């Protein structure tokens, strides 16, 4: 036990585990946000039942939700370096892109996976908005943009919150998959530490504890958000 | 696409598909009944037992499957007393048994959450009516509560089945040769990354579609003519 | 809403400008496994030590550039090189015809024999020939690392045994210690290093070595530095550097430091 203690602090593994946790959180948050940005227009397309594009979106979500995340991460990691490199060269920071490549690709993969689930959640939330409210806003001659920004999106957000919490919980756990392509997030740091110290149980339990902390804190945060958004709505939940 | 590549890859991926199906089957056959039981226990009046199982469920739902796999395979595999006990080593020593155990524990945690919610959503009136008819707790469970809960839980459980099949791919990280395991091996030997990815994805899609069809059939059978109008979310 | 949009735009501009500053520096990005003692061992800060790290650093010094290491699992090194993730691979990469179709190589800088490893008390430990080893390993489990020539060799010569492929050498060694696999196949330096560790003390090499000449189609001939296909400019620079190091005796020094033996291959130019 003292061995592990020494290992953690003298050789600085505790600090790297913290750094790894930060990378995990960053990856999860950025991936989830990007996923939502992608998912919102797609969800609206599905909600409005636009002819061809709606079907395409449905195929996309079905595909991404059926294929294991591990395979998607492999594909993105090895399939798109050329494109990212040329984009990086255009902005003039090729070296920075190269060194941040695993993070960027991890973020892209996570956002694709989370967007597929988010689309379904947002679509479900949009469908529960009473038609009457939208008709009322149209009868008031509100411009389309105002209808969306003032009526549809806030109501959708309230309904989607529980589902989005589930997607977030899933997303933050999927970040551990990016460790297989070498990104230095929490799982990979724990694996490196476990390999060098030859005490895998301690380090994987620590990784598990950190994930529990993150998911538990997220859950509490979600409860607070839900209470806030449900102000003024007296329906018993 | 290279015909030669297809001919080389498909037999291996078929072998892998067998293992994927085994993991999935065990996950559902053991996970579903156990999950229902744990879900009921979490609602029982015995506070402490309920809390224990809720903690178990929270742990397995709050940590990634990858972490759980590594804890059980590498973590427990390191402990001397596990290596010395034949029964424990039969589970932890074999990568396939380890993977099945972890997947089962994981799906029991999620299934218990689904069924806990389903049982809680049954209108109290129904349960009281059953008691008024003189049904014992057990008969009320079998005849009234369980069918209602099952109908409520099925869409969510259909999702869980799809997740079990996807999560079986993580077994490849502890050397199990299921579809992803063979895909990784093929990718590193033939360097044909995108092609192998596509073929492996087709396999997973096929298995998922099959599973979804089965779940849809079960839902139709259970509805017995009642139009629920509910779609399964794949 | 407008404020957040403004903040986002400013942020992107800031990041872009910072990136432009840190761009053009003369560095050689080196891909390596980082999980394979004594070749390549990554520590918590991403610094890599080991035989391959020393070779890479020596080559960089000869070429008068800085070395920057990228650590990834072994089987993903070649695909990443082909997609330009790093400039070279220095990770005990065996030179084989199959790999030559994907990438180019420098001249070979080292060649190591391979061994099977079993527990000291196993009957296989005292066997005298490769044919006998293969017969006794029928039906047993053997560990190899995914993507290596060793994996291909075992799969080809021992079709009736159960071959377990690991993503990292350290994982294979952990399972060997735990007793999940009956044997493992890798090269001499890996085993010398492993047997010195407390967990590896009860293992021994089966005395019969397998040299690359035994099956050159699969095992290749020597280890080389992997270079992206078509990058002949870099290839000639690396070759020149390696040749200079070979003539100075650096390759032998590095080999003796990590392997206790001289496995360096002299430059023939």
Give a summary of the structure in a few sentences:
Chain B is mostly helical and 234 residues long. Chain B is built from ten helices and no strands.
Protein structure class of chain B: mainly alpha
Write the H/E string of chain C, N to C: HEEEEHEHEHEEHEHEHEHEHEHH
State the CATH superfamily name of the largest domain in chain C.
Periplasmic binding protein-like II
Enumerate how many helices of chain B there are, as a single number. Answer: 10
Q: Tell me, briefly, the overall form of chain B.
A: flat
Estimate the helix proportion of chain B, in percent. over 70%
| Annotated CATH homologous superfamily of chain B | MetI-like
Count of the separate structural domains of chain B: 1
**Strand element count of chain B:** 0
- Characterize the largest beta sheet of chain B: strand count, sense, and whether it forms a barrel: none
Strand order of the largest sheet of chain C: 5-1-6-13-7
Largest sheet of chain C: 5 strands, mixed
Low-confidence residue ranges of chain C: 16-24
CATH class of the largest domain in chain C: Alpha Beta
Number of strands of chain C: 13
Q: What is the multimeric organization of the chains shown?
A: heterotrimer
Largest interface here, residues on each chain? A-B, 37 and 41 residues
């Amino acid at each position: 036990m003292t061995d592990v203690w020494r290992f953690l602090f003298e050789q600085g593994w505790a600090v790297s585990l913290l750094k790894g946790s930060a990378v995990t959180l960053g990856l999860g948050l950025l991936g989830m946000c990007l996923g939502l940005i992608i998912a919102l227009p797609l969800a609206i397309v599905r909600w409005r039942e636009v002819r061809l594009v709606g079907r395409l979106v449905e195929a996309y979500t079905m595909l991404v939700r059926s294929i294991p995340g591990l395979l998607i991460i492999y594909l993105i990691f090895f399939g798109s370096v050329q494109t990212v490199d040329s984009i990086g060269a255009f902005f003039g920071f090729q070296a920075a892109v190269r060194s941040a490549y695993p993070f960027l690709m991890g973020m892209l993969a996570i956002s694709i996976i989370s967007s597929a689930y988010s689309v379904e959640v947002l679509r479900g939330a949009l469908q529960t908005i009473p038609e009457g409210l939208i008709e009322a806003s149209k009868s008031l001659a509100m411009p389309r943009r105002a209808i969306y920004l003032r009526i549809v999106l806030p109501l959708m957000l309230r309904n989607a919150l529980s589902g989005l919490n589930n997607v977030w919980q899933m997303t933050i756990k999927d970040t551990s998959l990016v460790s297989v392509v070498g990104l230095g997030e929490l799982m990979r740091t724990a694996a490196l530490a476990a390999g060098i110290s030859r005490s895998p149980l301690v380090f994987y339990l620590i990784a598990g504890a950190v994930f529990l902390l993150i998911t538990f804190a997220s859950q509490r945060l979600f409860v607070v958000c839900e209470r806030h958004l449900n102000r003024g709505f007296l329906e018993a939940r | 696409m290279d015909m030669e590549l297809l001919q080389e890859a498909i037999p291996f991926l078929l072998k892998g598909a067998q293992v994927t199906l085994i993991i999935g089957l065990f996950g559902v056959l053991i996970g579903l009944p156990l999950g229902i039981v744990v879900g009921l226990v979490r609602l029982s009046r015995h506070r402490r037992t309920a809390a224990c199982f809720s903690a178990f469920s929270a742990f397995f739902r709050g940590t990634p499957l990858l972490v759980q796999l590594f804890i059980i395979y590498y973590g427990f595999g390191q402990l001397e007393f596990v290596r010395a006990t034949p029964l424990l080593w039969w589970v932890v020593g074999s990568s396939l048994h380890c993977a099945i155990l972890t997947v089962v524990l994981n799906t029991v945690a999620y299934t218990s959450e689904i069924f806990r919610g389903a049982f809680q959503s049954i209108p109290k009136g129904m349960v009281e009516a059953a008691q008024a008819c003189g049904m014992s707790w057990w008969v009320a469970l079998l005849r009234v509560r369980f069918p209602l809960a099952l109908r409520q839980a099925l869409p969510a459980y259909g999702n869980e089945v799809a997740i079990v099949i996807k999560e079986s791919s993580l077994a490849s990280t502890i050397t199990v040769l299921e579809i992803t395991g063979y895909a990784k091996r093929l990718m590193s030997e033939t360097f044909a990354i995108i092609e192998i990815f596509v073929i492996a994805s087709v396999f997973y899609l096929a298995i998922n579609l099959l599973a979804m069809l089965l779940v849809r059939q079960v839902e139709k059978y259970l509805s017995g003519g009642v139009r629920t109008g509910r779609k399964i979310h794949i | 809403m407008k404020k957040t949009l403004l903040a986002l735009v400013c942020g992107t501009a800031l990041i872009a400008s910072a990136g432009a500053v840190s761009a053009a520096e003369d560095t050689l990005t080196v891909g390596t496994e980082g999980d394979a003692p004594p070749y390549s061992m990554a520590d918590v800060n991403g610094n890599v030590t080991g035989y391959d790290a020393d070779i890479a650093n020596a080559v960089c010094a000869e070429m008068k550039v800085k070395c920057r290491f990228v650590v990834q699992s072994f089987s993903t090194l070649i695909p990443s090189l082909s997609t330009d993730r790093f400039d070279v691979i220095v990770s005990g990469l065996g030179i084989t015809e199959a790999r030559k179709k994907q990438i180019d190589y420098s001249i070979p800088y080292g060649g190591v024999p391979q061994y099977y490893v079993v527990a000291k008390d196993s009957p296989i430990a005292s066997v005298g020939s490769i044919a006998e080893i293969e017969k006794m390993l029928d039906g047993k489990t053997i560990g190899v690392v995914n993507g290596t020539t060793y994996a291909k060799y075992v799969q080809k010569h021992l079709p009736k045994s159960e071959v377990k492929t690991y993503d990292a050498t350290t994982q294979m060694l952990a399972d060997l210690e735990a007793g999940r696999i009956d044997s493992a196949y890798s090269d001499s330096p890996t085993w010398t290093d492993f047997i010195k560790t407390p967990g590896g003390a009860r293992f021994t090499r089966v005395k019969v070595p397998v040299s690359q000449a035994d099956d050159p189609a699969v095992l290749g001939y020597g280890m080389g530095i992997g270079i992206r296909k078509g990058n002949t400019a870099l290839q000639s620079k690396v070759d020149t550097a390696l040749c200079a190091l070979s003539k100075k005796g650096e390759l032998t020094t590095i080999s003796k430091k990590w392997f206790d033996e001289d496995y360096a291959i002299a430059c023939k130019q």
